[in-house]
Amino acid sequence: MSTRRTFLRNAAALTAAAPLSGFAETTYPLPPVRQLTQGPKFHWFGYYDKLEFDPGNRYILSNQVDFEGRTPTADDRIQVGMVDTGDNDKWIELDKSDAWGWQQGCMLQWRPGSESEIVWNDRENGQFVCHILDFKTGKKRTLPRPIYALSADGRYGISADFARIQRLRPGYGYQGVTDPTADVGRPEDSGIWRVDMSTGDSELILSIAEISQFQPDSLPDDSPDAHHYFNHLLVSPDSKRFIFLHRWKGSKTRSFMTRMLTANLADGSDLRVVDPSGYTSHFIWRDPQTITAWSRHESHGNAFYHFKDVPGTAQLTPEPIGLEKMPLNGHNTYLPQHNNEWILNDTYPDKVKREQHVYLYHVPTDTRVPIGNFHSHALYVGEWRCDTHPRFSNDGTKVVIDSPHSKGRQLHLIDVSEIVKNPPA
Asked: How does pLDDT run across 21-51, given as a tens digit for each residue?
């Protein structure tokens, strides 16, 4: 099996060989873009699979920071707030966080099913916690465990070990709490917890020790000294199951390997290895049985694939999607407001102009519609790079991205209403 290093090198070569501006195959003009946040401070949201817009699509959440270009320390505090698009994009400060990273922020998001509750992670008294703020009443609650993702009904959250993640994948966990399992490769007391968002009660439903022994034949390049961890958790649209990436690396390897698994949200049962390739990257649920993920398969190499989350998944051949129109890894989501006919996606900076390309892909007609090309300065690399991570509004007519093309990372709003209301024939 090829190494992950070869996989990444091949992906980089493909990026250099395929400038994406040539995919404008429709007559749509680039839609209007509006900068939502301003300096001198910097603003960004983070990951692409969280709810950034309130249910009325007026308020847009954001993190705020006063520096860029280095790893945050435990003493670096950010502000959490939101932009009021109904009042000249006014910045509204809400609170603070001492538990954050450049890629995913502090997991700031609206609580599904609520009109006014906002969720984010923080650090208090030497522990990572989760806050829930009702911005209309000002009432704030604190849960004793941080949140990675929320169920679509807003009842439950799933949590991972952010101290362990930070040690093994700096930039995706949080500073300020020492990993208590640092000397253990496969700990029994670390893993994934289910959290009741009303009471704060939590239960460890999957341990790293358990998963590191599950279906060992699908553990490529595992070694006795490998350290295992979980990352990138996401609950299914029907709130019944969840995805997680199981990753590990040994002391003599420079990069990690990956499996994508799913399990029941209720108790972690009915485990399934959905993608054992070792190369799973960005993914999203299309529906409760289908996951769209960038990975590698012998049938079509590096590509986006539909993986089925059904019993016996590992024996199923995934179906490629957008082979010619989505040939590069990106942060992909569907627009459920439009029957999942559209995929919102982006790219990393190309090798020609260092532009990040944000686009919509119309699945029924295999059509790619560019919605913006945004320059990313060469200083934005590694842990503190600024991926666009495109996020859509609840009505599917607007997109917000993080981009540094205008004097540092800021939020930018793209109006895609004319595109989605007039799909390609």
From this structure: 445 456 789 999 999 999 999 999 999 999 9
Tens of pLDDT, residue by residue over 146-197, are 999 999 999 999 999 999 999 999 999 999 999 999 999 999 999 999 999 9
pTM score: 0.92
Q: How far apart are CA 187 and CA 417, in angstroms?
A: 48
Closest among 208, 180, 182 to 193, alpha carbons compared: 208
Instruction: Give 151's contacts (C-beta < 8 A, 6+ positions apart).
Output: 112, 157, 235, 239, 265
For 225, what's the count of Cα atoms within 13 Å in the CB-facing half-sphere? 4
Cα–Cα distance measured from residue 360 to residue 378, given in angstroms and rounded to the nearest whole number: 26
- Taking only the tens place, the pLDDT of each residue in 342-365 is 999 999 999 999 999 999 999 999
Q: What is the pLDDT of residues 238-286, one digit of tens each?
A: 999 999 999 998 776 678 899 999 999 999 999 999 999 999 999 999 9
Please report, as a single letter, which amino acid is at residue 382.
G
